[in-house]
Write a structure and sequence with these properties.
alpha+beta; Chitinase A, domain 3; 4-stranded antiparallel beta sheet; 3-stranded antiparallel beta sheet; 11 helices; 15% strand; globular
């Protein structure tokens, strides 16, 4: 037999054996990858939706109380929102060249502390049963940081804070006294274009709260970023709240849910998870600074939602 032919034959046989071994040793999944949506130039597959569902469930276990199909719809809506933001951010930023690592680490810390975890390693281990990678969580945080930076630059000159009014609020309500109330709150933020739509949404939200609980309802209906945590916004000092909200909370009991409150172009439903009487160690200037930051953040969130609604209308969302 020709030596050259023999050598080629042996190489081919080796490659066939290698390929056969790879196929046998590779897990075979019955899940077929399908494109479910296309948002501008970004595709969303059924696998992406499943991963997003796992991610949302890892942050809010109450989501498991929903029927799986309903949970997957929430995950799909979440991904559509994310892809719309990515499409807009790509016009202004190199998404791969991200430098705000310290801020990312601080937000990640807030994530795992909300889940009563101690450190990043604990968080990584916590995510494993959900088949969620820590790197994917960091990528989502990175996108939110860039989005907030973008909104801040675009609308920064439109944010108005009346410091004199805030100082008067501190003095009139004695917000710098030694003991103040601190509330542990959850929220559902929604929008309605008409009175009829408002009534319909309120009825639907109340029905869902009765059947699946506040957390799952927040994840399902709320347009706020807190939705991924079942609406939880954590602890808020009374000094950070508007007079209207302070008066509302003062009449509520722990576990009580408020009627919808108008905030900017949206509506807010609050759940009082707990309230505490705490010592106020900060002086008036610190209280004022916190009030200013809280007010700015609130206005930026409103600008963010208005701008997102605008670009969503101009986005091409194809359902496959």
């Amino acid at each position: 037999m020709d030596p050259v032919f023999l050598k080629v034959f042996k190489i081919k046989r080796f490659l066939i054996l290698l390929l056969t071994t790879f196929v046998i040793s590779t897990p075979i999944t019955s899940t077929e990858i399908k494109i479910v949506n296309k948002v501008n130039n970004h595709i969303i597959t059924n696998i992406d939706i499943e991963i997003e569902y796992n991610y949302l469930t890892s942050l809010n276990n109450e989501l498991k109380r929903l029927p799986k199909l309903e949970g997957l719809k929430i995950a799909n809506d979440s991904l559509i929102k994310e892809k719309i933001k990515i499409n807009e951010l790509e016009k202004y930023y190199d998404l791969k060249n991200f430098k705000q690592r310290e801020l990312l680490d601080n937000i990640l810390k807030n994530f795992y502390q909300r889940l009563d975890l101690n450190n990043e390693i604990d968080f990584q281990n916590y995510l494993k049963p959900y088949n969620v990678k820590l790197s994917d969580v960091k990528e989502k945080i990175k996108l939110e940081i860039l989005w907030n930076r973008f909104i801040s630059k675009k609308f920064g000159n439109q944010v108005k804070v009346n410091e004199k009014k805030l100082k008067k609020k501190i003095n009139d309500n004695r917000l710098n006294i030694e003991e103040i109330l601190e509330y542990e709150l959850s929220e559902i933020i929604f929008q309605a274009a008409s009175t009829e739509e408002f009534k319909q949404k309120v009825n639907e939200i109340n029905l869902n709260i009765d059947t699946i609980g506040f957390k799952s309802t927040a994840t399902k209906f709320s347009i706020s970023e807190s939705a991924k945590f079942g609406g939880s916004i954590g602890k808020v000092k009374e000094s950070q709240l508007s007079n209207e909200i302070r008066n509302l909370l003062s009449k509520m009991e722990i576990g009580q849910i408020s009627e919808p409150q108008k905030i900017g172009g949206s509506f807010m439903i609050l759940l009082m998870n707990n309230k505490y009487l705490i010592e106020q160690e900060q002086n008036e200037e610190v209280v004022l600074r916190n009030l200013i930051e809280f007010e700015k953040r609130k206005q930026f969130e409103q600008f963010s939602q208005v701008y997102f609604n605008k670009i969503k209308i101009n986005s091409r969302i194809d359902v496959k």
